[in-house]
Predict the 3D structure of the following.
Amino acid sequence: MAKTKTRKRKSPFKASKILKTASYKYLACECGREEKVDIDAVKVVCSRCFTLMVPPPEEKAEYVPSGHPPGWHFMTEYVDKDGNVFHRGKEQPKLKGTLKPTPPKVKSKSKRRTKEEILVEREAKKQKALKKAEKERLKLLGIK
């Protein structure tokens, strides 16, 4: 059998000795700041000058309440004070004035507990657990 020689391939990246040229340059903006740009660029505008050119965004109109309770358009049937009847948010003019107004549902706000109340409650739970553990221990020992 004849031995075959395996050639070691040369990497095209190592063999090529291309000189690296700069692919960018610096141009001065109207205000005097220098910005890094592509070689083909002719003029540059910096971020500060750009924000001065563009007008600020318009503010959206504030929320105007409709006079209906929250979620009224999700209710299967809602009647407002004027007698207008709505089925899932769509007005039903044929039924106007036939039903009584829907009473508003008032949500009760839950009172936030203070730190002291939380600590007292936690201590009471611990005491209850300790009493229960003591009873279990005495029961196992057969004392009581």
Q: What stands out?
A: Helices lie at 12-15, 47-53, 115-141. Residues 15-20 have pLDDT under 50 and may be disordered.
